[in-house]
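Case study 2.
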Amino acid sequence: MRNHSFRIALSAVACALAVVFLTLGMYVSVLTLTAYVFACLAIMLPLAKQFRLSAFLCYIATCLLALLFGGVGNFWRLFAFVIFFGLHPIVNSLQLRFNINKWIALIVKIVWFDVSVWLVWEFAGLFVVQYEWINRYILLIIATLGSAFFVFYDFGMFRCQRLVTFYVNKISRQ
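Prediction:
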């Protein structure tokens, strides 16, 4: 019974934190990317105890609640979180759970990230003025700079997951 209560409490805290961060990021545009990272860290809370289903349900609830609190008109600020950032910690957890080769997983995640960035670029083009020279080379820019950024981001998120797991385990033992 204690484990079930802990799972619910941990998931509720994770969801509440993620919603607060994303809502803040939707209203304060300079905080949007930071909000994504902190919301990802919040989703890592249930993953620290291997509660993958809870983390996925937390992701779904976070997206819906952030959309509700941030307003449907601000959906474009939530779009990158929905298609990539919110799912990334869960995918990393599944990668470790099923012992998938890290190089194969990295290549698949790079392609997923690059496609996500391209979709965000295309979607943002509906709302923001774009420059012709960037549109001409956007795929090359995303494939090089985006992929290089993602390698560091992925490494950093794995480290963050270890840190979150350490602290959740420390708290849950008390």
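The two ends are 17 Å apart (CA to CA).
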